[in-house]
Amino acid sequence: MRARNLGEADRIVTLFTRERGKLDAVAKGVRRAHSHLAGRLEFAAECEFLLHRGRSLDVIVSADIVHEAWMRLVEPERYAVAAVVAELIDAFCEPDLALPDVYALLTGAIRAIADARAPRALLSRFSLRLLEMLGLAPPLGSCVHCGASLATEQLWLDAEAGGLIDGACRERWRDLPELTPGDVESLRALAAPKGRGLASLVATPAAAAAVEELVAHHLGKRPKALAHLATLGA
Ligand SMILES: [Zn+2]
Predict the structure, then answer these.
(1) How far is ligand 1, taken at its centre, from the CA of residue 169, in Å?
(2) CA–CA separation, 3 vs 41, rounded Å?
(3) Cβ atoms within 10 Å of 8's Cβ, excluding its own
(4) Fewer CB within 10 Å: C terminus or N terminus of the chain?
(5) For residue 180, how far is its CA from the centre of ligand 1 (angstroms)?
(6) How far apart are CA 143 and CA 195, in angstroms?
(7) pTM of the entire predicted model
């Protein structure tokens, strides 16, 4: 997911693994010309690693590429979207906590982004699936203030409360972003488990904005990579 230099020739790489979730490991000598690891630790590459348990950090003994999307991710928008995906997983997931669902979501997202013509359209669904796996998904069937069940109707987003509110509750909280019935339907399709709602996987603009607000609320900040993506234009 990311890497930083260590000493003269080493790097510390942050991996997201199926078995142990997020972890930092040292790639020794990787910045030397003849390193056997060089070229295998590219951003978003899926590898099979052999790790040696070190005193503080694990040391990468070998890395074999299982799937690498690098050649297709050099396209600026794809790269920027993959960077958002990596930043969100990095920020939301604790080290040394196995999250196999998130691992599958990550690898699936990277493959989809590498093939996508409109990669940023994938972010809303990815973000909602991630929130769901972390237990942070907005309840889309009930008002987060009063608990009343919601139909497909005019609703408002209260990102601070982590979900949607109905007209009755909105009276007391003005100035919240408005969602049309079409936006609400879009959010529900995006949040549906795999295999459902495939027809409407592209979010309406207001639904996409609502997802970004919810992510920013749970994260406590806006992802940096999202700001970069915005500079690339539509
Ligand atoms: Zn309510």
Answers:
(1) 4
(2) 9
(3) 8
(4) C
(5) 16
(6) 26
(7) 0.91
